[in-house]
Amino acid sequence: MTKRQLSLFLLLLCAWANPSWAAESAEHYGFVSVLPPIIAIVLALITRQVLPSIFLGLWLGAWALHDFSFSGLGASLLESFQTYVLNSFTDPDKAAIILFSLMVGGMVGIVSANGGMTGVVERISGWVRDVRSACTATAVLGLAIFFDDYANTLIVGNTMRPLTDANRVSREKLAYLVDSTAAPVACVALVTTWIGYEVGLVQDAISDISGYDQPAYLVYLNSLAYSFYPFLALFFVFLVSWTGRDFGPMLAAEQRARQGGPVSASSAEEQQQAAQEHELTTGKSSGAINAILPVLVLVGTVMYGLWHTGTASLLADDPKLTEFGLRDVIGAADSYKALMWGSLLGVLTAFTITTARRILSLEATIQAWFSGIKSMLMAMIILLLAWSLSAVTENLGTAQYLVEILPDALAPGLLPALVFILAAATAFATGSSWGTMGILLPLVLPLAWALLGKNDMSSPEHWHIIYSSVAAVLTGAVWGDHCSPISDTTILSSMASDCNHIEHVRTQLPYAMLVGMTTVVVCTIPAGFGMPWWACMAIGAALLSAVLWKFGRRAEA
Question: Is the Cβ–Cβ distance between 306 and 178 less than 8 Å?
């Protein structure tokens, strides 16, 4: 047993021996209230397995509510599943998020199998003639396949590899372009397989915050302005592609490829195994419309649903209204209903096109749909457990306790930067951005609200701290994911690009660290203290441009 494990065991033993310690106040369970998320995080770091880690944290929290009694040990195990998981599963809003995510995954499976994605690739790759256009086309395609990071990685890497090879672009560069567009664009796009998961976590975190009743979808939309890392990562990808400048290990890899050396070493066996776990079959091209039309229907229906339900709600409150502000409409909209409408019609559109044009048989189309759903199942299980853990920490009063022990000197403006670094460290060690979000977001948002209240900053002009803290969890997890050698998307990027995995990590790390540190120092901290988000974004982009211009060089043939 390690020292860390021993210390955790002693903490549990002390709590069991002295149950009164677990009830230091009527509002929270004192230090015991932070044990469930701590256990979840530490076990995730040790085992690199998010699922059992969150469940053990959930079980511990349920046991704490039984004052760590011997009889409560077994009862809490049963309650963890029968009460907390069941309540999360049967909640209508949470069920809507699950159904939306599964249906979008199914749509991705169909448009991948019917050749629509391949058709999109062919449209974009038609103007590839040199290194610059090959890299830029890869980045553009990464943006085009915005609604799923796994589909993005596998499709872009595999289909663009022959084109980048022909133009002597290193596989390391291809893997970087694939990896650094997939998760960032999926994290911030308005309709993706990520959005349901993220909105679900936000909804659960704010549902019981007294005095803060903003809709979860609106909170997510407001957080996008403070999602500096994904936007700067995408900006840097296009900057590197267009200028042709590189530095560090990436420059050496590009020099090797440009001067006639091998474009890459062989892929590792573990990459092939990871690919099989997330594989989406890609059919021969049968027209880009097969992918574009379902996506347009999905996005258009969601937008219509938000407008329809929002205006209906506003008119129900005041039938005399004749003008509607966009923010008011979205704030009053039923986002869950809109997301479900969009996902259903998107799937039906993809299904109809595929069967009506006889691209796939009815059975094969259903199998492709189910294959896409399977790729989402693990994430949905993690989401259910994260919701359940959140319910336990709410009953234990974790957020209230954390606020009480925070030093009075801690400025609320520093909280988003600290959260961003913590999320990145957790995602780096676990290799799971979604697991990191599930563990941290239910804690961070109530903590941020309580910290604002403690400093008399609960008025709307200070809510940017809330939005920035939400963005810090969601985007910090992506930063850690980019730096981690055990991240699923990092491994998939190496596999899809047929790039040596260690070389991909080694060459991407300096770029990810540059963008991440720029985000912390130039964007997140100033924004936390009131600097406009657009000014922070502009300064960050200018700094990245200056660094690349100063230290980057073009590979010579």
Answer: no
- Residues 272, 366, single domain; the answer is yes
CA–CA dist 282, 152 (Å, integer) = 12
Report the Cα 120 to chain-centroid distance in Å. Answer: 24
Query: Are 482 and 427 spatial neighbours (Cβ–Cβ below 8 Å)?
Result: no
CA angle at 462 for the pair 457 and 467, rounded to the nearest 5°: 125
The pLDDT tens digits of the residues spanning 125-172 come to 677 788 898 899 899 888 887 766 776 776 777 778 778 888 889 999
Q: Which two tokens stand for residue 24?
A: 């230091």
Q: How many domains does the chain have?
A: 2
CA separation, residue 134 to residues 91, 242, 257 (Å): 47, 10, 14
Same domain, 303 and 179: yes
111 and 41 both lie in a single domain: no
Instruction: Name the 3-class secondary structure at 554.
Output: strand
Q: Which of 115, 172, 169, 97 is nearest to 137 (CA)?
A: 169
In a domain, 180, yes or no: yes
Whether 78 and 248 have beta carbons less than 8 Å apart is answered as no
Give yes or no: residues 77 and 132 share one domain.
no
**Cβ–Cβ < 8 Å for 117, 155:** yes
Amino acid, res. 115: G
3-class secondary structure, 245: strand
Residue with the larger pLDDT of the pair 242 and 270: 242
Same structural domain, 302 and 167: yes
Whether residue 425 lies inside any domain: the answer is: no
Indicate whether 42 belongs to any domain.
yes
CA distance 85 to 82: 6
Judged on CB neighbours under 10 Å (0-12, 13-18, 19+), 435 is buried
Same structural domain, 248 and 340:
yes
Identify the CA nearest to 171 among candidates 287, 288, 258, 269.
258
Q: Domain limits at 36?
A: 1-17+28-90
Asked if 128 and 187 sit in the same domain, the reply is yes
Bridge partners for 554 per DSSP? 245
Nearest-angstrom CA–CA distance, 37 and 437: 12
Tokens 């009953």 -> residue: 395
Q: Are 270 and 484 in contact (CB under 8 A)?
A: no
Which of 198, 229, 231, 232 shows the shortest CA–CA distance to 444?
198
Q: Could you write out the DSSP letters of every residue in 221-244?
A: HHHGGG-HHHHHHHHHHHHHHHH-
Least confident residue range of 118-122, 309-313, 336-340, 386-390: 118-122
What pLDDT score does 430 carry?
Answer: 65
Q: Which of 287-296, 320-329, 523-532 has the highest mean pLDDT?
A: 523-532
